[in-house]
Amino acid sequence: MTAPNSAERKACWGARDLLWKCLDDNNDNAESCKNFQGEFEAKCPAQWVKYFTKRRDFLKYKEQMEAEGFTPTDGPKQPS
Amino acid sequence: MLGSKCVLRDLCGGGRLLRNLHHMQRSFGSSSSSSLTSQSQHGGLRPGLPQLALRRILSYDRHGGLRSGLPQLALRRFLSHDQSSSSRSAHMKLRTRLVVTLLFGSGLMAAWWWVYSEKQEKLRQQRIEQLRRVALGQGTFSLLDHKGQRRTKKDFLDHWVLLYFGFTHCPDICPDELDKLSAVVSKLDGDPSLPPVQPLFITVDPERDDVAALASYVKDFHPRLIGLTGTPEEVKHAGRDYRVYASPGPKDEDGDYIVDHTILIYLLSPDGLFLDYYNRMKNCEQITESVRNHIRNYVPLNST
């Protein structure tokens, strides 16, 4: 299976951007963006779909850290 | 008018006059003390010599000219000279002060600039020393380019090289970086004073990226971009030369996988050694400027 060429890459990125915009507008409500999700999965290889989904999660997490700051969890209990 | 000036001068110098009067009294006094005492003895109102002198000094005639006694003339001359010379000297002092300050200030700035450039030079020398010790990129690699021709490291010696490791199935990072790389090379091509820089793309995914795959991949970027591939051993060897990290991820149901790898653009000097690197944060202009500076200030890392 050959890699996507330039045109296919751009199509995939376009679909991804539309999906992400929809999710941003609907506050990450996956239900309302089902058709964008379908488009995105059709135009991009499966690996890329997984990669971009994880990437979005990471970017959201980064935004949250930058806005709210980092609160460390309690950590493992010390052995008594 | 002259009179009023004289009055003013006299009033100002009045204090001095009175003081001088004391001296005058002394000088006159020795000759006339006897007459004074004789006066007082007689109880006469004949004005004493000091009083006469004072009146004379402070008198003017109607035309405003001051009948100047000798001490008065000398004093006036001294005063007038002093006043205008003091204003002149004050004026000169200001100008000299200004000039001195400017000279001092520019001297300070020159000294600062000299110290700063010395430090920069020292940092540069240190960096070159470190690079020399690391000497990254020794050894030779032997790979196939995207036209099927065998290429070794020797073919790229005496060229400036911008090298990127990646793979064709890369979702977004490799295309972005290769676009950036192509833009940098195009910009440098536009500068006739610089030698041509060779862009290179070496795959970290030899299993899937054969010559055909590379051929279709590199045509989307700079026309001089050369893609290199080979057997897994050859590719691993090249990656090791430049300490490149590459790790294929898990395969999914399509057999597709993503390779995690170092996403740096390497600058190689004409002796084939690593000179600098650029990460995702550096934009096209910054990289272009940096390469230009390296080419201009090039010192071969190899001692021969």
TrEMBL record, chain A:
- Show the GO cellular component annotation of the record: mitochondrion
Q: Where in the cell is it found?
A: Mitochondrion
Q: Mind telling me which InterPro entries this protein's record contains? A: COA6, COX6B-like, CX6/COA6-like_sf
Is the keyword RNA-binding in the record? Answer: no
Q: Name one GO biological process term.
A: mitochondrial ATP synthesis coupled electron transport
| Pfam families xrefs | COX6B
Output this protein's name. Answer: Cytochrome c oxidase assembly factor 6 homolog
UniProt keyword terms in alphabetical order: Disulfide bond, Mitochondrion
- Organism per entry: Xyrichtys novacula (Pearly razorfish)
Keyword Disulfide bond among record annotations: yes
From TrEMBL, chain B:
Q: Which GO terms describe its molecular function?
A: metal ion binding
The domain of life is: Eukaryota
Q: Where would you find the membrane-spanning parts of this chain?
A: 98-116
Q: How does it sit in the membrane?
A: Single-pass membrane protein
Alphabetically sorted, this entry's keywords are: Copper, Disulfide bond, Membrane, Metal-binding, Transmembrane, Transmembrane helix
Keyword Transmembrane belongs to the record: yes
For this protein, the record's PANTHER family field holds: ELECTRON TRANSPORT PROTIN SCO1/SENC FAMILY MEMBER (PTHR12151), PROTEIN SCO2 HOMOLOG, MITOCHONDRIAL (PTHR12151:SF2)
Protein name (Swiss-Prot/TrEMBL): Protein SCO2 homolog, mitochondrial
Which species is listed as the source? Xyrichtys novacula (Pearly razorfish)
